[in-house]
Every structure is written in structure tokens, then in C-alpha cells.
Amino acid sequence: MRTATNTEPTTPPASVSAQSAISIWLIEDNHTFRNTVARVLNASENLECSQRFANAEDALDALVGGAVPEVILLDVELPGQNGITAVSAIKSVAPSTRVVMLTAFDDHDKIFRALCAGASGYLLKTSPVERIVEGIQEAVRGGAPFTPQVAQKVLKMFSKLEPPRFDYGLTGREQKILELMARGLIKKEIADQLDLSYHTVDTHLRNIYTKLHVHTRTGAVAKALNERLF
């Protein structure tokens, strides 16, 4: 019989309502990293890391028992069942839960297999804590959070797939801006690279959102990746 590791609920900050907080589970076998991430998340506004596990099997047992978090942060290399195999198992039990990989591995094979298994995003452990927090929020909004270097690998993988299924009427400039945005560049960096003013880039982004029928940067990038728009 397995013994769960650190699965006790943790108390959210006093300023955050339990009802409004995004519920997060963390599956990570490194004790120090697990506790550090949980502490950061619980100190963040509207986030609550309520469960921590050292392996995927204990987390799956908890899911089968009826507890369903909004987001699960999942390592790839775990004792017993690995994280990539666990994605499919988690999604079969809790299809509404967003699974975001949080790992040290960024090779094409692991990224591709994790996304095919149903992962909503792929972040590296070297990411700033602010990016991890932002990634959780993106996933809850329906986005696909990626560390910039992972996003570039995903773009290369998608470039080998079939042509775009839809024509949204994007101009060449808009496609380039969308590509740079998918690589993780912010508005100012896009403006500098394309020798445009900040306001011109902002206007292009509004046009992109309108044409793609999205309202956020995350939504635009997710649609671009899914439909290979550049």
C-alpha cells in the first residue's frame, strides 16, 4: 500500500478567499523543490496549492476519490509512473483539470508526447516563479503556457504538420508579430525587432485579436500554434 507524501491541505493566505482561489496540485518527487513551489504559490494572490504529491499514483488515487483541482503541475521524471503517462490517466479521470508540465527536460520527444497526451502547457523549472504563476493563470483561462525556448521547439514541430486549416486574413506583418509573440517577446521587444513604434504594434495586436476572434495574447498564441498560422 502506498503512503502519500505531503498530501495534507495547505492553508491559503489569509487575504485570499478559498472560494476564489485557483486550486492547484503539485506532483514533484524532489522534496525541496516541491515545498518551495508550494510556498510560492500559496503566497500568490488567488492561488492555493492544496495538495502535494511525490508520485503520480497517489495523486490519481486522490482524483478517483473525488477531489478535482483546476490545475495540476506535473513533473516528467517521477518514481513509478512517469509524468507523460500520467497526463492521460489524469485527463481520463478529471477531464476539466488543466495539466501543466513543470520539468527540467525540454527535448522535442517529451514535449510532443506530453502535449499529445493532453497537457495544456509545458514550463521549465528554470522559469522565474512569476512565469509559473502566470502560466497557471493562463491555463485556467484556456491558454497554453510555454517557456519561451519550449515555445520555439513547439513551433518547429508544428511547422512539419499539415497546412493551416483556416484563413483569417492576417497580413504578413500581423503573422510576423504573432510569431514573435509566440516566441515570448513582449510588445516593446516586438516593436524594437521590427523597427515599429509601440503604438503601431499595439494596433496590429488589436487587429490580430479581432481577426482570430480572441481577446487575449494567450488565446491568440494558442490558436496560432493549434492551427499553424505562421
| Beta-strand content bin | 5-15%
Biggest sheet strand order reads 2-1-3-4-5
For CATH, the homologous superfamily of the largest domain is named as: Response regulator
Helical percentage: 40-55%
Shape: elongated
CATH architecture identity of the largest domain: 3-Layer(aba) Sandwich
**Computed CA radius of gyration, to the nearest angstrom:** 19 Å
Topology:
Elements: E1 22-27, H1 31-42, E2 47-53, H2 56-64, E3 71-74, H3 83-93, E4 98-103, H4 108-117, E5 121-124, H5 129-140, H6 148-159, H7 172-182, H8 187-194, H9 198-212, H10 217-227
Parallel strand pairs: 1-2, 1-3, 3-4, 4-5
Walk me through this protein's architecture.
The chain is of the alpha/beta class and 230 residues long. The protein contains ten helices and five strands, in the order E-H-E-H-E-H-E-H-E-H-H-H-H-H-H. The protein has helices at 31-42, 56-64, 83-93, 108-117, 129-140, 148-159, 172-182, 187-194, 198-212, 217-227, and strands at 22-27, 47-53, 71-74, 98-103, 121-124. It has a five-stranded parallel β-sheet with strand order 2-1-3-4-5, with helices on both faces. Helix 7 packs across helix 9. The model is unreliable at 1-5 and 8-19 (pLDDT under 50).
Feature tags:
230 residues, alpha/beta, Rossmann fold, five-stranded parallel sheet, 10 helices, 48% helix
